[in-house]
């Protein structure tokens, strides 16, 4: 009895002190295998293997001496023979010795004292490996004599017959079911609790539900979650299509192949399109071509659009997308930080370069197209359509001049043009298009709910117009259409607010009496026509007005100090919190924002100037070939596997996917 007690106590102590440094995600102990334990692969999908052995310098696991350079590694198929890693298709072998200074997150005291926990690391990488036989594999790293780290890998056994000619993946960045519900309330009239019209999303035949957790954190960012959606591999916050290793170099981390790369490798005459309302170097579009542990390597991202990343360790042999439409001109212009003039390079490579909506519409659809419409993120639907004066005096024309960008396309115009280009150029082998409504997320971050929901309604209108377009092109039955999100924000609506009453009172507690819940919520006033109501053609649904007297009582679960008056910010996008002069990373309420409202103290650390992502699962809407695969509750990575299955990309040995025509896909 006594001995048992002692050993339990020893374990508790060890566990507690082991917290002095945060382990690299995917490392269960001092040995690390990337890809890590419990990873699934598409048969034939290229990936790198990286092995690390750690020797912590401080903490309870501290070791004397260098990390083991003599580790060994095997991969064995369950029910098959053990094979040494060197028998795989390995094109490069790198052995490096590194020192990784790791600032711990879990020990805030050590962080305040600027005393990092250090780890010495030995590492080895095998580049561009693939597993072709479906089944379960066991990868084993043996180090320090007898210590072992085991990673269980699974190669999915998927049908190889191609079922879809085209795939469109719409991503409402940060979009949740709660936001869709709120947008519907603002834009669709109901009578006695029954809606008279439906959203385009409401009409999809199949609805699923995906879990967005990342590899080593239950809250994901857009880089990491886009990686899961496009590759079937979960990674770490800020990583694009790599597992984050110990080295500082953001380009040497172990990579894995992206849906775009696999699609073009199997079907060299297929097409790829990328559309976003974000700056193009942002994570969700970037994850279709870039491989890096740091999403902030913006020049690398743009160069990967330009050449498909062929110059990056010869990882891939595709030459980039046919059509790229978005904003973020600052990353295309030649500056001292960005030495290359990407407009010139794209143009020399055969792309038409459009700087405004008119030029984009006029660009021939049988040629490659790059559209960059302004600096920064695309102006929001609300400013482009309702409060247009906010487009003035921005000095954001994409050619680097100080003109204003006012002839702007929206998500719908960009998406429909991208479809024209892809269909014109790739009617034979089909195409893949990703279209992102990026600012649902960006405006949720800054607590600008009207602008966020305006973006969501624009996405819905884009989906509606896309379905009509595919119908008119005769492509609807051959196109898998998905609408999903990469993660959520903790947004919801809990009632309504009498803004006239709020604005008329001065005391904060009196102002709060303007909030009505349950019965006092009443009905949506956004759909009520009045003298100032906006008119939209049949089938297009946006609010009839954005400034009714009774607005939505909405909010998120975590936020910085801010003021709230629950009224549309007609003067431009909102900035809820301000950094105090001379105090870095210390954010207080912005007294210029929502002046007629009241102060709400923040629930986030004071270095947060905006809201954060949340835990919620997000919806998946599916229609078209393979739609049935997307019903139910599943993991974000399953979206990749289902798309890959639908496009016939599973490459079990000797059964490489055949051409579209051979698979009987209608052209
Ligand atoms: C391990 O780390 C220590 C402390 O930083 C350093 O002095 C030593 O050279 C490292 N050893 C190896 C083999 O890198
Ligand atoms: C690693 O193996 C080599 C060759 O067998 C041996 O000379 C060396 O001492 C070993 N190093 C360690 C740290 O075990
Ligand atoms: C770990 O060791 C290094 C090197 O000796 C030292 O600089 C650092 O402060 C130590 N960290 C902690 C948390 O003690
Ligand atoms: C990539 O391949 C080309 C041609 O095969 C070769 O010349 C070049 O050295 C390779 N680059 C890298 C980084 O391996
Ligand atoms: C749109 O782009 C074309 C081609 O660069 C240019 O000639 C035209 O002036 C632009 N229009 C506006 C409104 O900026
Ligand atoms: C834009 O700037 C000009 C001159 O700087 C000014 O006269 C004009 O009022 C501004 N327009 C808006 C909409 O702010
Ligand atoms: C509440 O917010 C105000 C304004 O930003 C700030 O001065 C105050 O310190 C906050 N209170 C707390 C407890 O954070
Ligand atoms: Zn975000």
UniProtKB/TrEMBL annotation:
Enzyme Commission (EC) number: 3.1.3.1
SMART domains hit by this protein: alkPPc
Chain ranges passing through the membrane: none
Principal EC category: hydrolase
Named cofactor requirement(s): Mg(2+); Zn(2+)
Binding site for Zn(2+): 173, 441, 445, 486-487, 613
Keyword list, A-Z: Magnesium, Metal-binding, Signal, Zinc
Signal sequence coordinates: 1-18
Stored InterPro entries: Alkaline_phosphatase (IPR001952), Alkaline_phosphatase_core_sf (IPR017850)
One GO MF term attached to the UniProt entry: alkaline phosphatase activity
Any matching Pfam family: Alk_phosphatase
Cofactor note: Binds 1 Mg(2+) ion.
Annotated catalytic residues: 222 (phosphoserine intermediate)
Chain positions recorded as Mg(2+) binding sites: 173, 282, 284, 436
UniProt similarity note: Belongs to the alkaline phosphatase family.
Annotated protein name in UniProt: alkaline phosphatase
Lineage: Eukaryota, Fungi, Dikarya, Ascomycota, Pezizomycotina
């Amino acid at each position: 009895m006594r001995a048992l007690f002692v050993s339990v106590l020893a374990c508790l102590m060890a566990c507690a002190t082991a917290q002095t440094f945060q382990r690299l995600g995917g490392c269960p102990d001092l040995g690390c295998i990337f890809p890590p334990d419990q990873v699934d692969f598409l048969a034939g999908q290229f990936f790198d293997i990286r092995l690390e052995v750690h020797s912590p310098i401080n903490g309870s696991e501290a070791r004397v001496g260098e990390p083991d350079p003599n580790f060994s590694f095997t991969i064995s198929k369950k029910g098959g023979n053990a094979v040494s890693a060197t028998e795989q298709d390995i094109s490069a072998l790198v052995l490096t010795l590194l020192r990784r200074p790791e600032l711990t997150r879990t020990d805030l005291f050590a962080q305040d004292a600027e005393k990092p926990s250090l780890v010495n690391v030995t590492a080895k990488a095998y580049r561009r490996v693939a597993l072709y036989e479906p089944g379960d594999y066991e990868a084993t790293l043996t180090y320090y004599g007898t210590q072992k780290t085991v990673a269980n890998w699974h190669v999915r056994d998927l049908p190889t017959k191609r079922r879809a000619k085209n795939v469109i993946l719409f991503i409402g960045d940060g979009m949740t079911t709660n936001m869709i519900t709120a947008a519907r309330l603002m834009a669709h009239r109901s009578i006695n609790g029954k809606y008279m019209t439906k959203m385009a999303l409401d009409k999809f035949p199949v609805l699923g539900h995906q879990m967005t957790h990342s590899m080593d954190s239950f809250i994901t960012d857009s880089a990491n979650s886009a990686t899961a959606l496009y590759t079937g591999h979960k990674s770490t916050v800020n990583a694009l299509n790599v597992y984050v290793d110990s080295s500082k170099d953001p380009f040497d981390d172990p990579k894995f192949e992206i849906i775009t790369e696999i699609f073009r490798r199997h079907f060299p005459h297929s097409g790829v399109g990328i559309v976003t309302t974000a700056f193009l170097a942002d994570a969700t579009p970037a994850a279709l071509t870039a491989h890096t542990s740091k999403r902030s390597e913006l020049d690398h991202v743009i160069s990967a659009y330009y050449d498909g990343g062929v110059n990056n360790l010869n990882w891939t042999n595709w030459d980039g997308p046919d059509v790229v439409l978005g904003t973020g001109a600052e990353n295309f212009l030649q500056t001292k930080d960005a030495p290359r003039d990407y407009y010139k390079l794209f143009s020399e490579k055969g792309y038409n370069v459009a700087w405004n909506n008119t030029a984009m519409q006029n660009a021939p659809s049988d040629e490659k197209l790059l559209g960059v419409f302004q600096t920064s993120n695309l102006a929001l639907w609300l400013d482009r359509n309702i409060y247009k004066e906010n487009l003035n005096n921005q000095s954001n024309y994409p050619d680097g001049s100080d003109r204003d960008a006012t002839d702007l396309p929206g998500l719908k115009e960009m998406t429909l043009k991208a479809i024209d280009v892809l269909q014109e150029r790739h009617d034979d082998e089909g195409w893949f298009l990703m279209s992102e409504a990026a600012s649902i997320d960006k405006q949720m971050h800054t607590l600008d709910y009207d602008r966020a929901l305006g973006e969501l309604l624009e996405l819905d209108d884009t989906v509606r117009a896309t379905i009509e377009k595919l119908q008119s092109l005769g492509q609807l039955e051959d196109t898998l259409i998905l609408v999903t999100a990469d993660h959520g924000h903790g947004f919801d609506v809990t009632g309504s607010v009498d803004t006239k009453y709020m604005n008329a009172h001065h005391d904060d507690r009196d102002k709060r009496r303007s909030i009505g819940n349950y019965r006092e919520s009443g009905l949506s006033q956004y759909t009520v026509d009045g003298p100032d109501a906006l008119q939209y053609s049949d089938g297009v649904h946006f609010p009839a007005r954005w400034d009714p007297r009774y607005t939505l009582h909405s909010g998120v679960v975590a936020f910085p100090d801010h003021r709230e008056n629950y009224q549309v910010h007609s003067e431009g996008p909102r900035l809820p919190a301000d950094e105090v002069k001379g105090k870095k990373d210390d954010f207080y309420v912005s007294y210029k924002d929502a002046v007629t409202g009241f102060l709400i103290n923040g629930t986030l650390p004071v270095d947060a100037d905006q809201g954060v992502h949340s835990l919620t699962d997000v919806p998946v809407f599916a229609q078209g070939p393979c739609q049935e695969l997307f019903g139910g509750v599943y993991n974000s990575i399953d979206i990749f596997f289902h798309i890959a299955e639908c496009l016939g990309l599973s490459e079990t040995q000797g059964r490489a996917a055949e051409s579209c025509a051979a698979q009987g896909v209608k052209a």
